[in-house]
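step=encode ok
step=design start
structure_in=
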């Protein structure tokens, strides 16, 4: 067995995984899971009003040039929150912000957003910078949630990492202990419809 990427005696929070430069595969392998990157066939809703997406896109095109989006707080407030509000309007789901989880010394911290419906769960991590390092954090959060949630009714846990202007999705197959990162990325405002329809599709 090779040298551990974790320092002995150090407690790791989810944000620490963003700072790790190791590939996602190495990180999840040490946590007892496998990793792959594929084209994910994500659920998509088709039955929500088209005008809501048009209005949301128009809002983005109007406000983005007027806002300084250099901080994570700004992106959460002005780019991510409008999408999540639209999603919970069209689903029977709840949204938890800064949801705390503690599994062990390697898996603890707060989830930026946890969306739960009767059948499905989505973890959304909001970062201001690197999507790849952000996905390392999302991977740790999904693994923590897998171990934290006793019920195995949801065989698949869904996750998304976003820097505000770009979204990328991933899934955790619980029985296989396999994490899959989607090859595709989605841009806001251009792909707002896809992002909203995927999030609604998962939760419905």
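sequence_out=
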């Amino acid at each position: 067995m090779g040298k551990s990427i974790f320092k002995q005696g150090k407690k790791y929070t989810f944000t620490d995984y963003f700072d790790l430069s190791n590939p996602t595969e190495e990180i999840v392998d040490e946590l007892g899971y496998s990793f792959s990157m594929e084209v994910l066939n994500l659920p998509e809703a088709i039955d929500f009003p088209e005008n809501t997406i048009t209005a949301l896109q128009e809002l983005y095109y109007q406000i983005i040039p007027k806002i300084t989006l250099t901080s994570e707080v700004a992106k959460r407030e002005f780019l991510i929150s409008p999408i999540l509000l639209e999603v919970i309007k069209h689903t029977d789901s709840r949204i938890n912000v800064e949801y705390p989880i503690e599994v062990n010394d390697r898996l603890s911290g707060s989830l930026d957003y946890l969306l739960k419906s009767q059948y499905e769960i989505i973890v959304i991590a909001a970062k201001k910078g690197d999507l790849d390092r952000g996905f390392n954090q999302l991977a740790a959060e999904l693994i923590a949630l897998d171990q934290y949630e006793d019920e195995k009714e949801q065989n698949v846990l869904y996750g998304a990492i976003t820097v505000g202007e770009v979204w990328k999705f991933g899934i955790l197959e619980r029985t296989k202990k396999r994490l899959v990162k989607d090859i595709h990325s989605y841009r806001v405002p251009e792909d707002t419809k896809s992002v909203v329809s995927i999030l609604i599709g998962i939760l419905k």
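step=design ok
step=annotate ok -> The chain has a mean pLDDT of 91.
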